[in-house]
Amino acid sequence: MRHPVSAEIHELSAEDARRAEGLRGYFVETHGHRPSESLIAAALANSSAAAGLTDLADPSVRMVFADAGQEPALQLQGAGDHIQWELTLARQGHLAIALAWPGRRGRPGALSAILDAGGASPTWVSGGQAGNRGGDSVHVLRVVGAPAGRYLLTVTAEAVARAPQPFALVVSGPVAGLALA
Question: Cα–Cα distance between 178 and 153 in angstroms, integer?
Fold first, then answer.
């Protein structure tokens, strides 16, 4: 059984620009993190994907992120290079995952993401470029009704025009943890 998945195309609008400024403040003030442009693009896309999927008043719904634009150790060095995280869901729920990377450093389809529950559980693979937001390539992934448990989330460089390849990943849902695997 596969989880229902949808991809959306996002363009930068005036409203997104206002939201981007708010997100910059959020990351700095709440997390003490100066976000890369890719993290802003991923967070904007993630919030659009999560709209209507999650109850934001539910305390088990969290947003977690990785920002390789600001953490060089996470950047991918060439085709085939990958990085993995263990994603733990506290309960069954909906996931919104956004992966963004600078368009000038990689072409559309340069990165891909795989969410694997292992064993008999379904594997979900992102398909192609979901859109472009302010010069960043963005994949937007939604998994409806993901069971509680551990997942392996892998980001792979499919084609890198110029290394290193920075990117940002934002996950929201009933997330109990996200840690490098």
Answer: 9
